[in-house]
Design goal:
By secondary structure, the protein is mainly alpha-helical. Helix content is about 80%, strand content about 0%. It has 2 domains: about 5-95, Rna Polymerase Sigma Factor, Chain: A, CATH 1.10.1740; about 105-174, Winged helix-like DNA-binding domain superfamily/Winged helix DNA-binding domain (Arc Repressor Mutant, subunit A). The protein has helices at about 5-35, 40-55, 65-95, 105-120, 125-135, 140-145, 150-170. Belongs to the sigma-70 factor family. ECF subfamily. This is RNA polymerase sigma-70 factor (ECF subfamily).
């Protein structure tokens, strides 16, 4: 394929995408808004649905674009709703639990955290950021990868190396 053909294909793909976006964005936004009852999240969902279409569109065989977009929107919204329910369940459990009593293992846990922090300080900055996004900010690998502007697979590789290095540093605690 020559660069001229590639540019023609890209221009054609962009035109088709623009038509689909202009025709269906409003419907997808309102479907997300109806399910989430939050304009900002609905905008994010609609944006994500169309971004996924753009990036995956060349590899997908879509017979009915509207069906595909509404299904993707619904699934994305359901994932958000389920994540909210899980977060609420965890918060409810924590709030319903008994007050914290003196824990004999507290100092041991504190010491382990100190060892982990020391191990983290020996890691490259990107590795520390990846660790903190997942374990401190409770972000998924996909969310963390997007925040770091890297692919999900690259992020997975960084996390694998990070956890392996931390394990090596903490092996003496057994």
């Amino acid at each position: 394929m020559t660069s001229e053909n590639f540019n023609e294909d890209l221009a054609s793909r962009q035109e088709i995408f623009k038509i689909i976006y202009d025709r269906y964005y409003g419907s997808i936004f309102w479907q997300a808004h109806r399910l989430l009852d939050d304009r900002e999240k609905a905008r994010d969902v609609a944006h994500d649905v169309f971004m996924n279409l753009w990036f995956k569109g060349g590899s997908l065989e879509i017979e009915n674009v509207l069906w595909y977009l509404t299904r993707a929107c619904k699934n994305t919204c359901l994932n958000i709703i389920n994540r909210k329910k899980t977060e609420r369940t965890v918060v409810d459990r924590v709030q319903a639990s008994e007050p914290v009593r003196e824990d004999p293992h507290f100092s041991e846990d504190f010491q382990i955290r100190e060892y982990i922090n020391e191990a983290l300080m020996d890691l490259p900055e990107r590795w520390r950021l990846a660790f903190h996004l997942v374990f401190t900010h409770n972000k998924s690998y996909a969310e963390s990868a997007a925040e770091m502007n890297i692919s999900r697979n690259t992020f997975k590789s960084i996390m694998k190396s990070t956890l392996q290095r931390i394990r090596e540093k903490l092996i003496h605690l057994k």
